[in-house]
Inverse folding.
């Protein structure tokens, strides 16, 4: 017989198994509910309507940073939708005096406000710089001011991650009305860290309940085993043999085992459901250790990156690294095409000053004689040096050096870019190849930039405004020049080249002609950016004039090469005047330094040639 304590133990196991099943079901249902019916929205959004008369709209930094996380911007309501972002001050500078819809976070409310405002030019950093081209260039697309820009038809949706101090400009084409609806949305952390533990815990508890249930059934079956021996009765006669039954499959076995199988069929789905639900779990289902707060990304290109100085009284760099890389890449593409087609109109849209004069003259020369050498091409990347000016006003300058990976033996190319006003593009004013022995001094990082040095600064061994004249005097007088000792002669291949070339031409000159040389300061602007050693990188231009005059009335001068192509004269009885343009890059040490001024880069090209009147 089954004792009472055994029955109680079996009963307790059944009760515990039922409790475990109920608890497991509750835990699993609660875990699933956290990811379904109780799940909070994954994002929050705010919208604003732009007035029909506005051509531009500005989404202020306060609106973009109303909630934490990346910003998804959706703009609709125009055939062409344009969106770009940049520093708030740069966006206002580009707008100048044009009215725009100001979109910002409403005070004391989780909503966006929109109103038409007139942008005062003074807020743009420079009243004089903000005004030009306000009406002549209404389309903001393609401006060098933007860190990133997007264009679409009808509707534009993009996700950016911009920090404070960045604003978005919204427009159509600058002439038509701006899109009418702007929606900003931010992701919300709707993770449920206890969903995973509840589902897994429910599965574990269900498994324990299953084990308890099976043990209780097994114990109950064993309790129905053989009874105590009874006295033997009369012996029964042997019955005839019954035919042997056919073998049956285990799945067809009946009796107490069938009940166990059916019980397992009822219980196993609970564990199976737990496993299936768990297989779809992600990191949002589980608790995570607290992580250190992430620093705001700076530098780009994921949209929203910009390098702003930490100190509020220090002007920001004129451009960021991704912005500069994009600008140089666009210039490189345009110049490569213009150089191949000799397109003077196209090259003038991205070059100015001495660099433009050299290319225009080269185009004229190659149009007459295609065999003549072209100016060095502008590679796209990589930029091995990036030094933007610290500036909130205009004009702005940037120094960069490009090393062509495809031609490692070719000297790196140093560019000086200038932007005259907010709506103007950066133009290449100087393009010089670095000297083989040039050693560029330590410079500030691109995220900080360098201040501009005044032309009359006394903080250098020679004011930047006097560098060109002093070097021109050395080219004319050599060691007799008073400035000769201030400039490093070793490694300066340019002055050696000029001296050799002049001596060679004088030696070939006939007695019936004379040759005169003159060197003067060029028309290019003097650019001086500070270095970390309290010195300066200075870019200047010179012009070298070579005049060949006829002394004998019956003699003639034969022209050749580039001079012949530019002047259009094969020979002349009057004489030829040729002008060469020089672009020079120097390192000027700080005042009191024992170091000398070093020539870092040069470019020279014939820019004009004509017959003497």
């Amino acid at each position: 017989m089954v004792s009472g304590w055994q029955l109680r133990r079996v009963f307790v196991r059944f009760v515990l198994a039922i409790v475990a099943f109920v608890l497991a079901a509750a835990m699993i249902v609660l875990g699933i509910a956290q990811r379904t019916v109780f799940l909070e929205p994954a994002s929050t959004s705010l919208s604003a309507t732009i007035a029909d008369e506005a051509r531009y709209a500005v989404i202020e930094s306060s609106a973009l940073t109303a909630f934490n996380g990346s910003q998804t911007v959706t703009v609709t309501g125009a055939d062409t939708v344009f969106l770009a972002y940049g520093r708030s001050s740069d966006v206002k500078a580009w707008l100048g005096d044009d009215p725009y819809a100001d979109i910002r976070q409403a005070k004391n409310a989780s909503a966006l406000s929109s109103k038409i405002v007139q942008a005062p030019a003074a807020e743009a950093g420079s009243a004089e710089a903000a005004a030009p081209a306000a009406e002549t260039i209404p389309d903001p697309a393609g401006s060098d001011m933007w860190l990133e820009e997007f264009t679409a038809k009808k509707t534009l949706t993009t996700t950016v991650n911009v920090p404070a101090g960045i604003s978005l400009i919204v427009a159509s084409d600058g002439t038509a009305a701006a899109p009418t609806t702007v929606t900003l949305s931010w992701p919300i952390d709707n993770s449920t860290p206890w969903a995973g533990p509840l589902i897994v815990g429910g599965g574990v508890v269900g498994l324990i309940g299953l084990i308890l249930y099976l043990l209780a059934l097994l114990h109950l079956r064993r309790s129905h085993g053989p009874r105590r021996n009874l006295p033997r009765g009369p012996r029964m006669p042997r019955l005839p043999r019954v035919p042997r039954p056919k073998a049956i499959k285990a799945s067809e076995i009946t009796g107490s085992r069938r009940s166990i199988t059916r019980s397992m069929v009822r219980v196993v789905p609970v564990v199976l459901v737990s496993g299936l639900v768990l297989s779809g779990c992600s990191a949002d289902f589980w608790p995570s250790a607290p992580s250190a707060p992430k620093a705001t990304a700076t530098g780009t290109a994921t949209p929203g990156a910009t390098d702003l100085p930490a100190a509020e009284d220090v002007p920001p760099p004129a451009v960021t690294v991704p912005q500069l890389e994009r600008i140089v890449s666009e210039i490189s593409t345009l110049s490569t095409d213009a150089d191949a087609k000799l397109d003077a109109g196209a090259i003038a849209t991205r070059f100015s000053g001495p660099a433009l004069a050299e290319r225009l003259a080269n185009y004229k020369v190659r149009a007459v004689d295609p065999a003549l050498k072209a100016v060095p091409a502008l590679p796209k990347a990589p930029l091995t040096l990036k030094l933007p000016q610290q500036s909130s006003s205009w004009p702005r300058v940037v120094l960069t050096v490009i090393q062509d990976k495809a031609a490692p033996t070719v000297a790196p190319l140093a560019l000086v870019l200038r932007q005259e006003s907010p709506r103007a593009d950066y133009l290449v004013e100087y393009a010089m190849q670095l000297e083989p022995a040039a050693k560029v001094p330590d410079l500030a990082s691109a995220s900080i930039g360098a201040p501009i040095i005044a032309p009359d600064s006394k903080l250098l061994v020679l004011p930047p405004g006097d560098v060109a004249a002093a070097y021109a005097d050395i080219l004319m007088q050599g060691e007799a020049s008073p400035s000769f000792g201030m400039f490093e002669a070793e490694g300066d291949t340019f002055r050696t080249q000029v001296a050799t070339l002049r001596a060679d031409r004088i030696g070939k000159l006939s007695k019936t002609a004379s040759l005169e040389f003159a060197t003067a300061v060029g028309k290019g602007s003097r650019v001086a950016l500070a270095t970390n050693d309290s010195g300066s990188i200075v870019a200047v231009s010179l012009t070298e004039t070579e005049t060949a005059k006829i002394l004998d009335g019956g003699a003639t001068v034969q022209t050749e090469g580039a001079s012949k192509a530019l002047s259009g004269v094969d020979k002349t009885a009057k004489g030829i005047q040729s002008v060469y343009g020089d672009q020079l890059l120097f390192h000027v040490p700080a005042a009191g330094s024992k170091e000398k001024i070093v020539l870092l880069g040069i470019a020279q090209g014939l820019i004009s040639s004509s017959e003497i009147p």
